[in-house]
């Protein structure tokens, strides 16, 4: 791996600072690509991370996945091949706000890239692995250079739509060719255990308001129930029931904070039959009641 170019890192910081003009989440001209500015320390907060990669500069983010803790900043960036619930703590530098970019992972594009890579180097991504739902890659010069160009085209709707996805595809390539690229390749292809669990997570994410049938999920993944449990926990650090509960509670918080739903309505929308059980589990998970979530909604979203 080449030594990180300080001039490129400074240019990346400048481009992020120029794009993330507002405190909090800044949307861009490309759907789901977001920029974030955080000027003050944000204590640990539960969030659901979609399949994405995230680059952060000026400070660091601390990811809590069950009992495991991971930190990333200017040396590494986060890759999330499966939808996972994380507790995130944001720690800016003393003199600068933390700046970050989050880009979704498109598995169809990644599959296409893997097939092209295999034409030229069949051994590059042959290792099939199972891992936790997150991992980290070194923030290389290639990734920084591509990300800088992406940030520049994001300033124009026209250029974002003409060039943006091509540049993102280029970044996917650099991630696949990185130190742990085989993990992303494994998640993208449907035959690996990792990919089958990722599909189950997507199913739960899309059907969180319904009951959970472990036998059906295991059968769909072509696994025994015991094997499914083991692989599921290896990726998420949670059991399927614990995972579904976190998805439901986070969705309910979004319904209340973003859409203004009452707690009882939000509870019903995510599959809770008992409002009192919902309130208990909500407070246990977030540390505040549903009513407090609505009252203090400004600054909590995201």
UniProtKB/TrEMBL annotation:
Coiled coil: none annotated. InterPro entries: Homeodomain-like_sf (IPR009057), HTH_AraC (IPR018060), Tscrpt_reg_HTH_AraC_N (IPR009594). Residues 198-296 form the HTH araC/xylS-type domain. It comes from the Bacteria. SMART domains: HTH_ARAC (SM00342). SUPFAM superfamilies: Homeodomain-like. One of its GO terms (molecular function) is DNA-binding transcription factor activity. Keywords: Transcription, Transcription regulation. This is Transcriptional regulator, AraC family. It comes from Maridesulfovibrio salexigens (strain ATCC 14822 / DSM 2638 / NCIMB 8403 / VKM B-1763) (Desulfovibrio salexigens).
């Amino acid at each position: 791996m080449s030594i990180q170019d300080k001039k490129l890192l400074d240019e990346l910081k400048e481009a992020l600072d120029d794009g993330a003009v507002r405190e909090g989440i800044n949307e861009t001209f490309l759907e789901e690509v977001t920029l974030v500015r955080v000027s003050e320390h944000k204590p640990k907060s539960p969030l659901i991370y979609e399949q994405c990669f995230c680059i952060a500069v000026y400070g660091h983010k601390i990811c809590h996945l069950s009992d495991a803790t991971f930190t990333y900043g200017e040396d590494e960036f986060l890759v999330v091949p499966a939808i996972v619930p994380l507790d995130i703590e944001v720690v800016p530098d003393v003199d600068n706000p933390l700046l970050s970019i989050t880009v979704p992972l498109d598995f169809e594009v990644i599959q296409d890239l893997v097939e092209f890579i295999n034409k030229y180097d069949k051994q590059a991504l042959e290792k099939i692995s199972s891992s936790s739902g997150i991992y980290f890659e070194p923030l290389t010069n290639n990734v920084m250079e591509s990300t800088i160009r992406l940030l520049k085209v994001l300033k124009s709707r026209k250029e974002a739509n003409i060039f943006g996805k091509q540049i993102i595809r280029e970044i996917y390539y650099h991630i696949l060719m990185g130190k742990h690229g085989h993990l992303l390749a494994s998640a993208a292809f449907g035959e690996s255990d990792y990919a089958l669990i990722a599909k189950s997570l997507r199913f739960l994410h899309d059907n969180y308001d319904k009951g959970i049938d472990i036998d059906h999920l295991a059968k769909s993944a072509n696994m025994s129930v015991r094997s499914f449990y083991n692989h599921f926990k290896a990726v998420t650090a949670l059991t399927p029931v614990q995972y579904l509960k976190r998805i439901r509670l986070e969705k309910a918080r979004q319904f209340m904070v973003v859409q203004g739903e009452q707690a009882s309505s939000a509870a019903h929308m995510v599959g809770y039959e008992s409002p009192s059980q919902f309130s208990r589990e909500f407070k246990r998970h977030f540390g505040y009641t549903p009513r407090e979530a609505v009252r203090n909604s400004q600054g909590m979203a995201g």
